[in-house]
Amino acid sequence: MSSTPDLGPLPRRVTVDVDQVRRLVADQFPHWAGLPVRPVAKSGWDNFTFHLGADMVARLPSASEYALAVGKERRWLPALAPRLPLPIPVPLAKGEPGADYPFEWSVYRWLPGRPASADRISDPVGFALDLAGFLAALRSIDAADGPQPGKHNWFRGATLRTYDAQARRALATVDGHIDVELAREIWQAALDTPWDGVDVWFHGDIAPGNLLLDNGKLAAVIDFGTCGVGDPSCDLAITWTLLTADGRRAFREHLAIDDPTWARGRGWALWKTLVTCARTVGRQDEEAVNARRVLGAICSGT
Questions:
Q1: Which of 52, 94, 217, 300 has a beta carbon 3.0–4.6 Å from 56's, enabling a disulfide?
Q2: CA of 13: how far to CAs of 48, 65, 85, 213, in Å?
């Protein structure tokens, strides 16, 4: 793999409807054929997710690139789950192409909970510590033979230079709307900060939608499609996008994150936020306002 892998064009997504899922289930898992199927609200971009009965979900990749994670998850999630302090999805069955759907897909046990958001978290510092404890446990698992960064996870765990061109296009778009020079300095510092090369497990997409709450507390972590082994700094973006300043400090202290890793994590958060800011220039909706708030925290360093 080169130091700056080519992300290539955006994935060509397929469509999936309830009738297709019913046919797939009936053809491949006839013992579940009578169960009701309905879409999961806000099922995400990478996968279409459908409730299957009361306690399962069918998860169907939306493009061939996302389908690369199906076999990985089936191989690794059952091995990771017993070693983690919170529930994670574990595949119950793997589906095959059929009913005009072209990719492998999966059936999982449904994990209850509400997606995390700042207003739903009952104790911001306690939440930050619980999340740090989960990531510490994940990092402690033997990384030997784990999946290296690649197309299966959009090169999470590899160098941030993978996203350099995208970040610089975003900086050009938001020029005049933010302090571009400061943002560029933070980005360049993240690019220039070395990683020690010791592989550890990472989730790859620790984002509010993948953190489930029960009564305001962290209850489960879902969507391991971008997981792998490599540089874990990609899992630090959440400290800027969701955690409070106090939560950020507690999170960093609990994980004993050194300055270089923290700088790269700040870079991951900056890349994600710049892309959102560029997409929402001139808008005043919730997404745009939140992106500017996050960018302010990243640039201030608080």
A1: 52
A2: 11, 9, 34, 30
Which residue spans within the chain are E strands per DSSP?
37-39, 47-52, 56-61, 91-95, 105-109, 114-115, 200-202, 211-214, 217-221, 228-230
pLDDT at 42: 81
Distance CA 44, CA 29 (A): 24
| Whole-prediction pTM | 0.94
Which secondary structure element, helix H or strand E, spans residue 286, and what is its range?
helix 286-300
- Cα separation, 220 vs 213, whole angstroms: 7
- Other beta carbons within 10 angstroms of residue 258's beta carbon come to 10
Q: Report pLDDT digits (tens) over 25-55.
A: 999 999 999 999 999 988 788 999 999 999 9
Q: Report the distance separating Cα 274 and Cα 178, nearest Å.
A: 10
| Domains defined along the chain, listed by start | 18-110 (3.30.200.20), 115-300 (3.90.1200.10)
In angstroms, rounded to a whole number, what is the distance separating the alpha carbons of residues 90 and 104?
Answer: 16
168's CB contacts (< 8 A; 6+ apart) are none
From the list 288, 238, 24, the residue with the least C-alpha distance to 121 is 238
pLDDT per residue over 206-255, tens digit each? 999 999 999 999 999 999 999 999 999 999 999 999 999 999 999 999 99
Q: What is the distance, to the nearest Å, from the Cα of residue 73 to the centroid of all Cα atoms in its chain?
A: 14
Give, as one character, the DSSP assignment of residue 178: B
